[in-house]
């Protein structure tokens, strides 16, 4: 847990730490014992070259994250070996990739403990940065942004915490769109999202992973300071529908504790919750409600976790808007393509006469079990 969290009053962090230790969730994410890479996955080079095509086959975000060809899975297998030759092989494989496949591995290459083992990291990151600049330029050329965009109407809708609540489309009127972000805070991208929203005068709801909030508490606080609402999204983004009930409950509790610790607020002041992947059991939904949380789903999915090309992502979002015309749209503030697309989306909402909505907690929170 970052030292910054311990600067909070003891009642905040002490109770949360007990939850995390009891859950066995305070270890290093992704750390595994060194084991040989399964032969069925292919060589390091083969895994890297298959990643994009294998991930494109995944229909849901859960399948995408669980794929053995997910960039994190591939690189962590190398990391677990602690073998210089394997890191060198990984570098060679990365250098062979075209830019639109190399960018899949950006976050893994940027991790300091990975970059320190990869002599190729600086050159790879220069290529990735150039790729994103070019992609952003193409989108801007196709859909130019005004030099001084007008403010976008933003409406606050109060959520009565004294009632059990489950929101899918938010029961919003036609033309009302609630922009929501999952999985942050991100070390660099969340702040850029905040700047874009600030320029448009738009507020949003952010559902943060406890582990990420604990890693970046200063950014979590920036989200709140900018006028947005922060909810919890479990501790590690586990698929709760596949977990034993007690394990799922611990994920929910520890995620909420970590987010509240990062914000320096009591747990009761983080009443909004979102199930990872939208996956739940009836018992887990009841558990969340008994804790006094309001649950948020969505009726529009940007699919920014899968659609990496910014222009294609923009077109998919427009299609979602055309079909639904109202409701809650899901983004993730951890993806570069999302940051690139966001100002274009806000401009399109202006042009089409949409209003944005932010859900805010109001009313007395229910006693927690």
Structure characterization notes:
The chain has two domains: 32-140, no CATH class; 153-362, Glycoside hydrolase/deacetylase (TIM Barrel), CATH 3.20.20.370. Helix 1 (10-23) runs antiparallel to helix 13 (245-263) and helix 12 (217-225) crosses helix 13. It has helices at 10-23, 44-56, 61-66, 71-81, 84-96, 99-102, 106-110, 112-115, 121-142, 189-200, 210-215, 217-225, 245-263, 282-290, 310-324, 336-351; strands spanning 154-160, 166-167, 176-182, 205-208, 229-232, 272-273, 294-296, 300-301, 327-332, 355-362. Strands 1, 3, 4, 5, 8, 9 and 10 form a seven-stranded parallel beta sheet that branches. A three-stranded parallel beta sheet has the order 2-7-6, covered by helices on one side. It is an alpha/beta fold. Helix 14 (282-290) links the parallel strand 6 (272-273) and strand 7. The chain has 16 helices and ten strands. It is globular, with a radius of gyration of 21 Å. Mean pLDDT is 90; it is low at 1-34.
């Amino acid at each position: 847990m970052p030292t910054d969290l311990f600067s909070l009053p003891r009642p905040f962090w002490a109770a949360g730490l007990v939850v995390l230790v009891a859950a066995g969730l305070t270890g290093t994410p992704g750390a595994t014992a060194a084991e040989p890479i399964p032969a069925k996955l292919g060589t390091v080079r083969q895994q890297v070259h298959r990643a994009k095509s294998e991930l494109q086959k995944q229909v849901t975000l859960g399948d995408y994250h669980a794929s053995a060809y997910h960039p994190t899975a591939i690189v962590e297998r190398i990391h677990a070996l602690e073998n210089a030759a394997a890191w060198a092989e990984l570098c060679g494989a990365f250098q062979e990739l075209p830019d639109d496949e190399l960018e899949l591995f950006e976050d893994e290459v940027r991790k300091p403990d990975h970059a320190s083992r990869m002599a190729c990291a600086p050159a790879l990151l220069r290529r990735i940065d150039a790729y994103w600049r070019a992609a952003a330029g193409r989108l801007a050329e196709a859909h130019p942004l005004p030099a001084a965009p007008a403010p976008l109407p933003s409406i606050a809708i109060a959520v009565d915490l004294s009632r059990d609540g489950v929101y899918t489309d938010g029961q919003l009127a036609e033309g009302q769109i609630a922009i929501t972000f999952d999985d942050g805070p991100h070390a660099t991208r969340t702040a850029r999202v905040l700047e874009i929203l600030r320029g448009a005068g738009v507020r949003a709801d952010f559902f943060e992973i406890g582990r990420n909030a604990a890693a970046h508490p200063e950014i979590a606080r920036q989200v709140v300071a900018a006028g947005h609402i922060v909810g919890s999204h479990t501790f590690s983004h586990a698929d709760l529908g596949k977990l034993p009930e007690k394990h799922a409950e611990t994920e929910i509790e520890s995620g909420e504790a970590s987010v509240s610790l990062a914000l320096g607020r009591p747990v009761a002041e983080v009443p909004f919750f979102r199930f990872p992947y939208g996956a739940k059991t009836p018992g887990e939904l009841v558990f969340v409600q008994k804790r006094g949380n309001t649950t948020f789903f969505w009726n529009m999915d940007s699919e920014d976790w899968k659609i990496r090309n910014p222009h294609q992502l923009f077109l998919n979002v427009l299609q979602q808007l055309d079909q639904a015309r109202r409701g809650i749209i899901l983004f993730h503030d951890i993806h570069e393509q999302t940051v690139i697309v966001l100002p274009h989306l806000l401009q399109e909402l202006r042009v089409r006469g949409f209003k944005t909505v932010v859900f805010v907690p109001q009313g007395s929170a229910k006693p927690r079990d």
